[in-house]
Amino acid sequence: MEKLDQIDFKILSYLQEHGRVTNVTLADAVGLSTSPCLSRVKKLETLGYIKSYGARIALEMLGEYVTVFTEIKLTGHRVANFERFLQRARNIREIVECHHVTGGYDYLVKIVARNVSHYHGIMESLLLSDAGIGKFSSYIVLGTPIIREGYPIEELF
């Protein structure tokens, strides 16, 4: 893994918030001329530091939906148990995040669904798919007072 410098971190940080920025604006924001700035962006893309560019969708404008965090404990803790669960979970598009965690559960899963009934159907199909779920607990999100779209790159590195 190539060592990044502070300018690389500034580029990454700026692109998180302004993905459609022109190279001229980006170069100005990070204190470079356009050619070296573009070279650095291409390098960061090639090395995999920049995974993709995309749009942030205002899901709430499309209609009603519910977000549910679900703690999942598997019946077994062998590699095959984890692989089986992940194989089933990857096929469910409503599962938008899946975190392998410490504590009393194995996974913390974020699910978006049309409503509670839809969420219930998702969990029922997951349970019936022999995913190896022993126990689960659900937490319906009432509101999201803090949401950050990017990472605090300059504070972390």
From TrEMBL:
GO terms for cellular component: cytosol. One of its GO terms (biological process) is regulation of DNA-templated transcription. Residues 4-65 form the HTH asnC-type domain. PROSITE patterns: HTH_ASNC_2 (PS50956). It comes from the Bacteria. One of its GO terms (molecular function) is sequence-specific DNA binding. Keywords: DNA-binding, Transcription, Transcription regulation. This is DNA-binding Lrp family transcriptional regulator. It comes from Novosphingobium sediminicola.
